[in-house]
Each structure stands twice: as C-alpha cells, then as structure tokens.
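Tokens as discussed.
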C-alpha cells in the first residue's frame, strides 16, 4: 500500500464582528494526516513538518 501523508496548515481562528464581517488570524498550528491512519492532532507547524518527515522515513524503511 502506498501511503500519502498530508500536512494541513494555515489553521485560522475566526472572530465575527458586529456587521457580519469575520477576521481570521493564523494560529501557527497544523495537522498531519496519512492514508495509513496517522493523525497527529493539532500541533505547531514546525513540529508538523518533522512528524511528516519522520513518518515518510519510517514508512520507506518498512517497505525496504
């Protein structure tokens, strides 16, 4: 099975103001998900990149 890890980043926090307009602020957080079932939960973006790299490396070693 070929795995495909995805980093979902750019998670924002919305705030609705009077008049109906919404402000979005970056949170600096991300989620790593893979077709194998890996779900990191919400983590800092820098940690998400490391989780994805580690997961790819581990999956490649398992296939070898």
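Sequence:
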């Amino acid at each position: 099975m070929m795995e495909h890890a995805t980093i979902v980043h750019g998670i924002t926090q919305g705030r609705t103001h009077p008049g109906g307009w919404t402000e979005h602020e970056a949170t600096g957080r991300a989620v790593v998900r893979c077709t194998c079932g890996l779900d990191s939960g919400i983590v800092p973006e820098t940690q998400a990149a490391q989780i994805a790299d580690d997961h790819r490396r581990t999956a490649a070693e398992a296939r070898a």
